[in-house]
Amino acid sequence: MKYVVILADGMADYPVPELQGKTPLQAAKTPTFDYLARHGRVGMVKTVPDGMAPGSDTANLAVMGYDPKKYYTGRSPYEAISIGLELAPSDVVFRCNLVTLSEDEPYESKVMLDHSSDEISSEEARGLLEHINMNLRKEDMNFYAGVSYRHILLWNNAPFDFELTPPHDIIGRKVEKYLPKGPYRDIFSEMMIKSSTLLKEHPVNLERKKKGLNPGNSIWLWGEGKKPALPNFFTKYGLKGSVISAVDLIKGIAICAGMESIDVEGVTGNYQTNYEGKTQAALEALNNGQDFVYIHLEGPDECGHRYEIENKVKAIEYIDSRVAKPILEGLENMREEYKIMVLPDHPTPLKLRTHTSEPVPYLIYQSNDRKDDKGQAYDEHASRESGLNFSEGHLLMDFFLKGQLLN
Predict the structure, then answer these.
(1) Are 249 and 60 in contact (CB under 8 A)?
(2) How many CA atoms lie within 13 A of 193 on its CB side?
(3) How many domains does the chain have?
(4) b/e burial code for range 52-64 (CB count within 10 A of at least 16 → b)
(5) Are residues 339 and 198 in the same domain?
(6) Which of 3, 92, 223, 345 has CB 3.0 to 4.6 Å from 75, enough for a Cys bridge?
(7) Could you give the dihedral angle defined by the CA atoms of residues 221, 227, 230 and 232, in that order, rounded to the nearest 10 degrees?
(8) From the CB of residue 230, how many other CB atoms can be counted at a distance below 10 Å?
């Protein structure tokens, strides 16, 4: 049996007036999802436990079968591990975004315009991070470049008492209320304020402005965490697994779980990514002996954060036509039984431009247990009506890999 999870990050949403009251998933043309739903099962799963922040970290842990209440130690350690950093138990890691703030006011009065600096390229970001590290690093604190706008601050032998806010939660708002709080607020606030001065006239940003692109004109620190300890995926499920993603967080979870993290050229973390490359890599992994592949696609989430209605619909259609369809065809050609699961990790409603904790729709298709329900659809409403619900997200993977489909 082969197993494939297609994780459409942030795909779930609310009804959108501009889409005639439909959600992006309902509005999108998804013939492959429709086929899988008609011949499989749909339902709802709560991936973010009550009381926990609705991030891709907690949600993807749950989808991969790990209870966030038990195993979550923060987001950024997974990202640090994915870029090869060795962590000691006393280290604390922070996510360091390159963000775009308004430029004409004192720092406290600036507005968070863009949490991703127009999804700045990794090459451009590396130059900015080197400048930041040269000027802001301390004996026990160093900055490390990651992918696009996503970077790392590593504090050796650090305290663990911080109140930090994700930048994607405050788009369009003044930053004053969301600056670091707690006993170490002055250290981080000073870094962020100094970074604004250091980056404003940096050649990379001047060139981006000429091109009409948002500059990476400040760092933003958040997502603190310590070294995680996940049970090995193979030991847990008896399956050899691979993960394919452009996002350091997802790669880091894979590495910590003992799974293979497959790099694909040309992946971006937005809706204009190398879908064909991810699909080919997944099928090659399955043909070369892997039992399980987790394909993570970030596009719908980024479109949700950026309030790009048409692009979110387009991202979902691309995942259907350029990932799900060739995956289904490739699995059929392997002449081996298989299961496919499609779901988001969490909602990223366009209306809110950030993550929420509501349950998300999933579908499961099993090649040797095809159903025939011509009226069945895959979307938020149809999945809610099915009644096949999981109140604890990590149990869905147990059901997908080890359970039987409900009749």
Answers:
(1) yes
(2) 14
(3) 2
(4) ebbbbbbbbbbbb
(5) no
(6) 223
(7) 120
(8) 21
Compute the distance between CA of residue 230 and CA of residue 355 in angstroms, rounded to an integer. Answer: 24
C-alpha to C-alpha distance for 193 and 208, rounded to whole angstroms = 21
Integer Cα distance of 165 and 178 in angstroms: 6
Per-residue pLDDT tens digits for 243-291: 999 999 999 999 999 999 999 999 988 899 999 999 999 999 999 999 9
Question: Taking a C-beta distance cutoff of 8 angstroms, is the pair 272, 220 a contact?
Answer: no
Instruction: Give the pair of three-digit tokens for residue 45.
Output: 């799963």
- Residues 142 and 268 reside in one and the same domain: no
Domain of residue 176: give its range: 82-225
Q: Are residues 66 and 89 in the same domain?
A: no
Each residue's pLDDT tens digit, 363-405? 999 999 998 888 899 999 999 998 889 999 999 999 999 885 4
Angle at 216 between CA 210 and CA 222, to 5 degrees: 165
**Which residue, of 190, 225, 260, is where some domain finishes?**
225
Helix axes 185-200, 122-136, angle to 10 degrees: 120
Element (H, E) at 398: helix 394-402
